[in-house]
Amino acid sequence: MLSQKMKDALNEQVKVEAQSSQVYLAMASWAEIQPGIDNVTSFFYRQSDEERQHMLKLIHFINDRGGFASIPNLEAPMQTYPSINHAFKSLLEHEIMVSQSINNLVELSLNEKDYTTHNFLQWYVAEQIEEEALARTLLDKLELIGDEKSGLYLFDKDILGVMVVSSNDAGQ
Ligand code: OFO
User: Ligand 1 atom closest to Cα of 98?
Assistant: First the structure.
């Protein structure tokens, strides 16, 4: 059984994951109308789908443990970005915020002596390490490229490799 505190906090996390999915969906839609970054577009769509999966995993967990996952209202995400660098900077900042939110949940699960939830949350801890590292790597590359169009072309090619590697990792 989940304590009331734990239920409320997990429901808050449902909102965080749903909001993440919306934010990345908006990035994808914006990227889709920018010229020549088809793979970046697919990357954002994929991130959005993954966040939805993270949300669903939480919903099932809450409901399976005698709680009730409520479906939250979401805030409108940012619709456009001044540049691709800005979008990736915003992605990294968003992931850092999500990691903090997961860390708070882990702390609460220990305070509540809820070791089942603590164990469940370890998947999210590992996921956040990967996602933050990936966002940092991509942003570092973009900062090296600066405003060069040819660099952006290569970045778009490169991100395809990143997607293949991370889907192989996910399948392991
Ligand atoms: Fe939900 O994985 Fe990052 O945010």
Answer: 4
Residues 67 and 95: their CA atoms lie apart, in Å, by 27
Residue 172 forms part of a structural domain: no
pTM value?
Answer: 0.94
Whether residue 80 is contained in a domain is answered as yes
Site to substitute for ligand 1 among 46, 98, 125, most atoms within 8 A of C-beta = 98
75: in domain: yes
Total tally of structural domains belonging to the chain: 1
- Kindly report the CATH number assigned to the domain that includes residue 26: 1.20.1260.10
Q: Does residue 171 lie in a domain region? A: no
d(CA 28, CA 46): 9
Each residue of 85-97: pLDDT tens digit?
A: 999 999 999 999 9
- From 114-118, 123-127, 146-150, the region with the lowest mean pLDDT: 146-150
User: How many whole angstroms separate alpha carbon 46 and alpha carbon 84?
Assistant: 17
Alpha helices in the chain (DSSP H): 4-32, 38-64, 84-111, 115-145, 149-170
87 close to ligand 1 (CB < 6 Angstrom): no
